[in-house]
Amino acid sequence: MFHSLMNTISLWALPSIIILIMTFGLVKKVALYETFTEGAKEGFKVSVNIIPYLVAIIVSISMFRASGAIDLISNTCTPFLKHFNIPSETIPLMLVRSLSGSAALGIFSDIAHNLGPDDYATKLSAIMVGSSETTFYVLAVYFGSVGISKYRYALIVGLLADFIGIVAAVSVCNLMF
Fold first, then answer.
1. Which tens digit of pLDDT belongs to each residue from 61-91?
2. Residue 69: enclosing H or E segment and its boundaries?
3. Does the pTM of the predicted model rise above 0.90?
């Protein structure tokens, strides 16, 4: 019953929102097509503006992974993290998650593929991916696209939130698994 209700809601949510917006626009006598194309032009301009930031973050992540820094940090931190029941396979995910969501998903995919879906490291990684954010990506792309250059406090808060998300993921996994 609940499952079929959720399926029905998910099927009709987006078309309902679109119809509601179009109806509201017609009632308010807004030129819908012109407004839509103007918004698309602005979206394209934003896309062009964020390309340099995207390239910078992609190059940085590639250099970080190719340099072997992730492996060095993993090998150094493994003995300390064993005390908290954190598998060494999850260390690269903890390091990369703040930088890039796609890199984190790639590492998570490797962990799940190599260890299987029922392994503790896979479960911990899944919770980590869901409980943290791509802080540097957000700062580089979103802040850069609107011209915000002073983001010191946003960086501190974002990294603190990522750390808390990882601690919460470890705590939840230790309690549940």
1. 778 778 888 888 888 888 888 888 999 889 8
2. helix 69-82
3. no
Place of tokens 């509201």: 24
CB neighbourhood size of 22 (10 A) = 13
Nearest to 68 by CA among 90, 89, 93, 92: 92
Cα→Cα distances 94→10, 156, 171, Å:
33, 17, 15
**Three-class SS state of 105:** helix
Residue 122: closest CA among 103, 107, 134: 107
CA-nearest of 96, 105, 174 to 135 is 96
Locate all alpha helices (DSSP H) within 28-68, ordered by sequence. Answer: 32-66
- Cα radius of gyration rounded to whole Å, the chain: 21
pLDDT tens sequence across 88-101? 889 888 888 888 88
Dig out the tokens for 103 from the structure.
């890199």
Q: Are 91 and 74 in contact (CB under 8 A)?
A: yes
Hey, what amino acid is at 58?
Answer: I
Burial of residue 63 (number of CB atoms within 10 Å: 0-12, 13-18, 19+): exposed
